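Support request from a user on the community tier.

User writes: "When I paste my structure tokens into the form, the page sometimes reloads and wipes my input. The last time it worked, I copied everything first. Here is what I submitted, just in case something in the input itself triggers the reload:"
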């Protein structure tokens, strides 16, 4: 790293947690981050949990972190939309997403919305698909919180919920979450940090590491989650560092 490291952005699932349990050495990793004096955020593409939810999730696993240590794709989506023209949105998503949109002055409505915003929800249905498609066909802009298609055990994620709407309308959504560089920029802006002084730690080459590469950050791949060492030859970019687990990281 040419500049002094000031900030660590860390993914959660596959780096710190697996099935809501701390990965071996993750507690030590978090303690080192907190003791380092560096600025840090724990980042997730999952839009359906608030900061308080995430704090409780980590606490139940045995890690105590402040609410302000977390940043979600719902928060990044709100930050993105706050910079766009229009303040009305039709939302397919849970309360955590609508909460963030309310915080930046949005009206959640199904009357002439400026945006259709899709997150993740178990209540997804035919009416939502029809309304969202009709609004987009009539000029509403199509935004998704994250491009993930599925979560654990085949849980349909935002990308899957967007797919039928995209097929009907012929319009592709703008996905805010990783690997979009916007997610990284929004997170760094939230803590007044800059990409050239920051590092992202993640387990997925195609989301975490790609997002860091596109944002101009140093990147650390850990092998406790999605991507394995043999996957490195499948992508045209390389992480700055590769470690077996987060506890082994020795660059801060």
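"...and here is what came back when it finally went through:"
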């Amino acid at each position: 790293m040419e500049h002094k490291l000031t900030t660590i952005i860390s993914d959660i699932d596959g780096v710190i947690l697996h099935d809501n349990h701390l990965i071996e050495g993750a507690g030590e990793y978090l303690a080192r981050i907190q003791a380092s004096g560096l600025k840090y955020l724990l980042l997730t593409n999952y839009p359906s949990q608030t900061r308080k939810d995430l704090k409780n999730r980590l606490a139940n696993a045995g890690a105590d972190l402040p609410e302000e240590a977390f940043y979600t794709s719902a928060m990044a989506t709100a930050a993105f939309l706050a910079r766009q023209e229009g303040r009305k949105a039709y939302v397919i998503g849970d309360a955590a997403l609508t909460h963030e949109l309310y915080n930046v002055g949005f009206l959640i409505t199904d009357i002439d919305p400026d945006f259709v915003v899709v997150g993740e929800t178990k209540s997804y249905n035919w009416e939502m698909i029809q309304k969202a498609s009709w609004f987009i066909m009539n000029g509403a802009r199509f935004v998704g919180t994250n491009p993930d298609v599925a979560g654990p055990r085949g849980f349909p994620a935002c990308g899957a919920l967007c797919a039928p709407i995209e097929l009907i309308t012929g319009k592709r959504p703008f996905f805010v979450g990783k690997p979009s560089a916007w997610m990284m920029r929004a997170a760094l802006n939230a803590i007044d940090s800059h990409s050239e002084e920051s590092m992202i730690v993640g387990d997925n080459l195609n989301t975490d590491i790609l997002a860091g590469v596109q944002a101009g950050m140093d990147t650390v791949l850990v092998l406790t989650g999605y991507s394995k060492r043999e996957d490195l030859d499948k992508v045209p970019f390389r992480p700055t560092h590769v470690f077996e687990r987060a506890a082994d990281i020795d660059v801060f």
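Agent notes: The reload is a front-end session timeout and is unrelated to the input. The mean pLDDT is 96. DSSP finds eight helices and 13 strands in the chain. Escalated to web team.
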